[in-house]
Amino acid sequence: MKRISKIVAGVLIGFGLLGSLAFVSDLLDPEASAEDKAEAPPGLVVMAALTSTGAWMFWQGHRKFRQQERDRLRSIFFSLLKENNGHLTTLRFAMEAGLEGGVAKAYLDDWAREFNAAYHISEEGNVIYHFDLGNTNRQFPDSI
Predict the structure, then answer these.
(1) What pTM was computed for the model?
(2) 76-to-87, 91, 106, 109 alpha-carbon distances in Å
(3) CATH architecture of 84-144
(4) Among 9, 59, 104, 122, which has the highest number of CB atoms less than 10 A from its own CB?
(5) What is the pLDDT of residue 65?
(6) DSSP string of 55-116?
(7) For 56-88, how does the pLDDT look when each residue is reduced to its tens digit (9 = 90+)?
(8) Among 103, 101, 107, 99, which residue's Cα sits nearest to residue 126?
C-alpha cells in the first residue's frame, strides 16, 4: 500500500506541475487563442489541486513512517530496560535498534534527561545508563 500511495502521489504531483506549466504558457503566449487563455485560470486551479493532493499524500506517508519509527524505537528501548533491570549501554541499544552509535547515544541521552537517569562509565570505557524502574537494585553492573 505504501508503494501505491507513493506512485499515486508522484503521478498527481507530476501531472499537476506539467499541467500548470502548460496553462501558464498559454497565459503568457501572445499567440494563444482567446479560448485557450480563458481555459487557463480554471485549469491552473485544477492542476494546483492535483499538486496539493499529491504533496499532502507524500507528507502523510512521511509522517506515518516517522510515527512507526518512533514507536519501534520506543518499544525496543523499554523492552531492553525491562530485560536488563533498567541498565542499558549505547552499543546494546544501537545493535538492537539498528542505529548508528551517535544516533543511539542522542536517543538515550534524551530519555536519560526525561527520566533523570544516572550513568556510569565502566572499566572498559562504556557508558551504562541506569533508569530507575522502581526496584531496589541501584548498583551499576560492569557490563550488560
Answers:
(1) 0.70
(2) 13, 13, 15, 15
(3) Orthogonal Bundle (1.10)
(4) 104
(5) 93
(6) HHHHHHHHHHHHHHHHHHHHHHHHHHHHHTTTEEEHHHHHHHHT--HHHHHHHHHHHHHHTT
(7) 999 999 999 999 999 999 999 999 999 999 999
(8) 101
